[in-house]
Amino acid sequence: MAKRKKTLPQKNPLKKQFTVDQDKGIDACLDQMKKEGYAPVRRMEQPVFKEGEDGPEVIGQMITFEGRLIQKDEQ
Question: What highest taxon heads this organism's lineage (predicted)?
Fold first, then answer.
């Protein structure tokens, strides 16, 4: 059997997810992505539910961006 190489954790993974905070907004999230060296490639929205008297109620949404690491020659 061949031996497997151990992989070390990367300092900057190629893809990373960023969640928009309720109090900060989308612009702050996109600025944070840019600071860390990521470009947005996908936006995902999920409803946030709360159990109410008549069943589940939508109380908001959670927005998540998937970022791709920007290569040095792209900057």
Answer: Bacteria
Instruction: Evaluate whether residue 5 is within a structural domain.
Output: no
- Say how far apart CA 75 and CA 63 lie, in whole Å: 26
pTM for the predicted model, two decimal places: 0.71
Per DSSP, the residues of 6-46 read PPPPPSS-SEEEEEPPTTT-HHHHHHHHHHHTEEEEEEEEE
Write the pLDDT tens digit of every residue in 42-55: 999 999 999 988 99
Domains in the chain, number: 1
H helices present in the chain, as ranges: 26-36
Residue 20: give the domain boundaries.
Answer: 15-74
